[in-house]
Amino acid sequence: MTTTDLGHEVRVASGLLRGTPRDSQGVLAFKGIPYAAPPLGDLRWRAPQPPLAWDGVRDATAYGDRSLSALENDRRPGPPNSEDCLSLNLWTAASRADEKRPVMVWIHGGGFQFGSSATPVTDGTPLARKGVVVVTFNYRLGIFGFLAHPDLDREGPSGNYGLQDQLAALRWVKTNISRFGGDPSNVTLFGESAGAHAVGILAASPLSHGLFHKVIAQSGAFWDGRNGPLEGFDEARARGIAFARRVGVTSLAALRAMPAEQLNAAGAWNFTQNPNVKAFSPNVDRFVVPEVPAACFTRGEQMHIPLLAGWNSAEDYPFHDMSLPDNTAAAFRAAAEQMFGADRLADFLRLYPADTDAQAKASSNALTGDLLISEQTWQWLQLHQRAGHAPAYGYYFSHASPYTPIASHVTEIPFVFGTLTEQSIVGGAMPPANGDRALADIITGYWVNFATRGDPNGPGLPHWPRYDESDTLQNLGATVEPRANPMAERFRFIASFRQGGVLPARWRRLP
Q1: What domains can you pick out in the chain, each with its CATH number?
Q2: CB distance 72 to 266 below 8 Å
Q3: Interval 121-143: pLDDT, tens
Q4: What is the DSSP letter of 47?
Q5: What percentage of residues in the chain have a pLDDT greater than 90?
Q6: Per-residue burial over 249-274, b = 16 or more CB atoms within 10 Å of its CB, e = otherwise
Q7: Residue 100 has pLDDT above 70, yes or no
């Protein structure tokens, strides 16, 4: 046995870990690894601190606690929710520590309000079997991750502790991943929904350079949309001050002394509200996020690294409660006129028709998906391609089957990870069939190829052309082939309201 042979006991910078022995296909798993100190007591609302060292062997066979969830009545199965949530998980099939396999680091979604890395759908085993090292992690959510306050600013930049956690996890990967057969100079950051928004925000952050080298954005980009741009510096602090007053607290010490569950309940959120404007979420902190990210991308000042990005055909499905008023066609037309202006209403109605109540409802749903998710993801592809410094690849996930009845938001994740777990959002009544498994094999192949060399193409896979001015996307559905973007005209309409890349600030005040 040589010093580089890799087993289920691995020493990282903080101490010795014992993970799960290799499965039948050679994958090792390590779970619940602390990448930062527990953010408890005086460390609540502080930048993540280095993980505490330990003596002996630390068990790494079970997921760590999930972040406290701001989602009202969140009863999702899994580990308990806790402030002590800063841990990560890792899967590798490397047999030696010096193999330098590509690394894929996943950021989970959930509107920055809920979610975790401890879910069967994002188990890294199938991807690791294809040759990459997979890392998933938890980060602080809701009020624990995104409270901004002038008193906190006196200790250090406040507002984006959850994003600082993500950077800390990436720094842990850079320091330790070579011990698991991974290459710290070949890291792909990927995520979905809020995870994709985080990928986009970090790609525009000056603090990210050197921590990742390729990016995959599944349904998200800038954290803007229906209610305008990401929350500004002063707005975020006003929210924090108002929260402290609402809970009757006058000092930072008193806020830190409040029980975590009480704080969490006071900052609760639900799906009837856009978390961009109704919850504690990413904001301009002049540190991790120096400005609205879309402006940085518009000037071409983001990280110039390979990009793979796309969206699903029915992104609107979980978000109908966040739509413009649409109980009648008249109500929808009036809300659209208020948002886009009387002089643009005819253009709007040509793309989002509202001649009948039913037609208005369908148009409202389409607009919701465009505003919350799809248009900004397309914008990232457009701006990245125009900059011309690194390749981009765009996709359109349209797959529907008895297992996945609707190509809704989040339904591509089981295909990306190759886990094909139950489709919880759309409630597929059937298990995956051969067609689903075949598509999952294609998609995992694309993602692993992209993580390996910045190009999804490879032997046995349908050719995927680079994204260019033709606005061609790779359709991932009943057929896997290049197609013209079916939503291009709608996206161009929405994009026409961006000034310097940024959507109108007045949209933040719309109901």
Answers
A1: 9-509 (3.40.50.1820)
A2: no
A3: 999 999 999 999 999 999 999 99
A4: P
A5: 95
A6: beebeebbeeebeebbeebbbeeeeb
A7: yes
**97 CB-contact burial (10 Å; exposed 0-12 / middle 13-18 / buried 19+):** buried
Structure tokens at 280: 């504690």
Q: How many Å apart are CA 385 and CA 379, to the nearest integer?
A: 10
CA 339, CA 359: separation in Å to the nearest integer?
19
Distance of CA 467 to the CA centre of its chain: 21
Residue ranges of alpha helices (H) inside 247-291 are 252-257, 260-266, 275-278
Question: What span, in angstroms and rounded, lies between the C-alpha atoms of 119 and 415?
Answer: 14
Residue 291 CB-half CA count within 13 A: 11
pLDDT tens for each residue of 149-184: 999 999 999 999 999 999 999 999 999 999 999 999
pLDDT tens-digit profile of 177-231?
A: 999 999 999 999 999 999 999 999 999 999 999 999 999 999 999 999 999 999 9
**Residue 491, token pair as written in the block:** 């996206």
Model pLDDT for residues 428-439, shown as the tens digit of each residue:
779 999 999 999
3-state secondary structure of 422: coil
CB proximity list for 24: less than 8 A, separation 6 or greater = none
Catalytic residue numbers, as ranges: 193, 315, 409
DSSP class of residue 180?
A: G
SS3 content of the chain, % helix, strand, coil (to 5): 35, 15, 45
Q: What is the pLDDT of residue 2?
A: 46
Position 3 pLDDT exceeds 60: no
Rounded distance between C-alpha atoms, residue 279 and residue 142, angstroms: 7
* Helix axes of 357-369 and 329-340: crossing angle, nearest 10 degrees: 40
Strand order in the sheet with 57-59: 9-12, 15-18, 57-59
- The yes-or-no verdict on residue 75 having pLDDT over 90 is no
**Beta bridge mates, 9:** 18
CA 416/CA 406 separation, integer angstroms: 16
How far, in Å, CA of 400 to CA of 262, rounded?
A: 42
Measuring CA to CA, which residue among 326, 301, 464 is closest to residue 391?
464
Q: What is the 3-state secondary structure (H, E, C) of 322-370?
A: HCCCCCCHHHHHHHHHHHHCHHHHHHHHHHCCCCCHHHHHHHHHHHHHH
Nearest Cα to Cα of residue 91 among 35, 132, 63: 132
Which comes out higher in pLDDT, residue 250 or 415? 415
Query: Would you say 236 and 148 are in contact if contact means Cβ atoms under 8 Å apart?
Result: yes
pLDDT at 1: 34
Please name the residues in contact with 56: beta carbons below 8 A apart, sequence gap of 6 or more.
Answer: 15, 16
pTM over cut 0.70: yes
